[in-house]
Amino acid sequence: MNSKLLNIRSILDLEQWQKIQDELALVTGMAILIVDYKGVPVTRHSGCTDFCAIVRKNPDTAKYCQKCDSRGGIEAARLNKPFMYLCHCDILDTAIPIVVDEKYIGAVMAGQVMADETDASISLEKILMSTYENSFIDQDGNLREKYGEIPRLPVRRISAIIGMLFHLCNYIVGEAISKNMMSETYEKILAKEGAPGDFTDDSLNTMMDIKEQVSKAIMTKQLKTSEKRTEGTPRHQILRPVVEYIHNNKHENIMLAQMAQLSHTSPSYLSRLFKKEMGKTFSDYVADFKMTVAKELLENTDLSVTDISNDLGFSDSGYFIKIFKKHEGVTPAIFRKYMK
């Protein structure tokens, strides 16, 4: 695929999208913006709350906002679906991945809301732990007041809005890619055949078939990607919450005994069942999963090796480097050098 399509600015008409984004924020009551794969905004923030506007303008806290956007987008791309999480200020945000040819190029970020306190059906991961642990909010009366004004929405409504945005993004990106590829093909045919009046019936038929062929290709690619990403889903009911916990809590040092308690089994039984169903030991599965996430972060972000190590629950970056080299044969730094 053309390398231009791996640049979000080449895919979306950001001026037109901004108009759509502004209206969507107004209708949904959620703040919305698009970021690139580094978490850097490429559109203006629509519907940004007063609290978040203040925090994002402060250089000391804005860097944490950008890290949350970046990590949320990467996690959404890995899951191949929207990823809902809590930011460093415990505010609900969602990353909706924009993926082209299996390459993560950015995300639509929607949120800056609180889940209704009466709804106990949701448990979200806090994607980034900051050094100040929100103490700066308590120390500023105005900021504390703005924090209390953040809108609250029922989880059911939040999920419905995110689902709508996910389908809308897929449609718009798919159409944009199709349009770009048709334009490229048209230029090639024009160069070969001459002026439009000189086109043969075959070349005209080719132009008429392009959109259908491109749409089928995109759909096939999406289906294959979706299937590939769900291969690790366990069939056994006991293992499903265990694997889900591992995937949703990559920042933790997850132990077998802890998962046995979660699945209401003994550690020895869970160990045998895990090996039988998943084809590898519990500890190997956890390590392999974390190394997969590490490779994606090394390839698609500018996070330091230490930050990635911390994000994956390693207390010592030296040990992380040792484990990574054992799995991949090279250090994280060398892997990044040759893959980016």
Automatic annotation (TrEMBL):
<keyword id="KW-0805">Transcription regulation</keyword>
<dbReference type="InterPro" id="IPR009057">
    <property type="entry name" value="Homeodomain-like_sf"/>
</dbReference>
<dbReference type="Pfam" id="PF12833">
    <property type="entry name" value="HTH_18"/>
</dbReference>
<dbReference type="InterPro" id="IPR018771">
    <property type="entry name" value="PocR_dom"/>
</dbReference>
<dbReference type="InterPro" id="IPR018062">
    <property type="entry name" value="HTH_AraC-typ_CS"/>
</dbReference>
<protein>
    <submittedName>
        <fullName>Transcriptional regulator, AraC family</fullName>
    </submittedName>
</protein>
<feature type="domain" description="HTH araC/xylS-type">
    <location>
        <begin position="240"/>
        <end position="338"/>
    </location>
</feature>
<keyword id="KW-0804">Transcription</keyword>
<dbReference type="InterPro" id="IPR018060">
    <property type="entry name" value="HTH_AraC"/>
</dbReference>
<keyword id="KW-0238">DNA-binding</keyword>
<dbReference type="GO" id="GO:0003700">
    <property type="term" value="F:DNA-binding transcription factor activity"/>
</dbReference>
<dbReference type="InterPro" id="IPR020449">
    <property type="entry name" value="Tscrpt_reg_AraC-type_HTH"/>
</dbReference>
<dbReference type="GO" id="GO:0043565">
    <property type="term" value="F:sequence-specific DNA binding"/>
</dbReference>
<dbReference type="Pfam" id="PF10114">
    <property type="entry name" value="PocR"/>
</dbReference>
